[in-house]
Input
Amino acid sequence: MTDRNFYSIQALRAFAAVIVMCFHFKSFINQSFQGWGDRLFLNGDIGVDLFFVISGFIIYYITRDDNGGLASAKIFFIKRFCRVFPPYFAITLLVAGSSVESWMQTATSLLFIPLDTTQIAPWFGVAKLFVGWTLNYEFIFYTLFTLCMLFKTRKNSVLFMIVALAVAIPAWLHNVAISPSNHYNYPGYLATLTNSLMLEFLVGTFIGWLVVNKKISYGKGVSIALIVLSFALFLFILLTHYSKIGGLGYILAAFALVFSLTNHEAQYAFWAPKPVLYTGKISFSLYLVHYRAKSLLSKALHHNQSAWGGLMLFVLAVILSFIFAVISHYLLEKKLSSLFRKYLLKKA
Output
């Protein structure tokens, strides 16, 4: 581990992106092996919860010494904005369509506003780029954390208080248990802020606090055992369909996995194959483009109804997704995002 670089986080990003991708491609597997796509990946959306916990960890880690108030807040927001927006903007434009209604939906999505807050929570009508609905939550978290940075050393305490109250108060007012499926008919950003998925970012920041400050230490053998147990719990949740997105099972599984791996790396070391670390590096692009790859292949090869046709589509969709992700990472994340970041930081 080097400063600002947890290799375990890169591996977890890769794992989360691949699980979500397989979740969206499970229908291809079902086509060749009836029901097996669902058996293996019906709970693959747990990758979203894992991403949210990872985001919380990263934000704690990279801002642990940033207590400069407004100056730190401006730099933080610019960097986060430039990390997410340019690739998301460019790829969303690819699915913008041509009608006025479609472009209105595109504009709404690019402002990180849920398309329809009257729809089922926590998706709220998703986004023009299907997976973009999760970025609505990321955007709220980044914006809220930016405001909390004005409180300098108390930023994380203020963050915990605001998010906890934003989730708890509506549930209390409506006399319901806290759940990601709660629907209060709140508009826009408020619908996102008050959803219990926001708590997963707090779980991540809590893990960051535990790990970075070495609050819990144990022997290497115990650490390896905890990693094995955390993977066992994660696979149990994934394969038994015990929980759902934002549910307690998903949160516990994500917490256990992120904590056990990052705490092991903080105390000892972490190794993963280079392809895994590279997948983690391009995981954001992979997450953004894989659903588009699926759509293109489904349209191009929809006539293939052979026994092995579904498996072939699955393999081709994975390959195409990685090709798109490599291109997106280089052109959009490394080039376009860097240009935005340099320009905005210069103006700040």
Remarks:
- The mean pLDDT is 94.
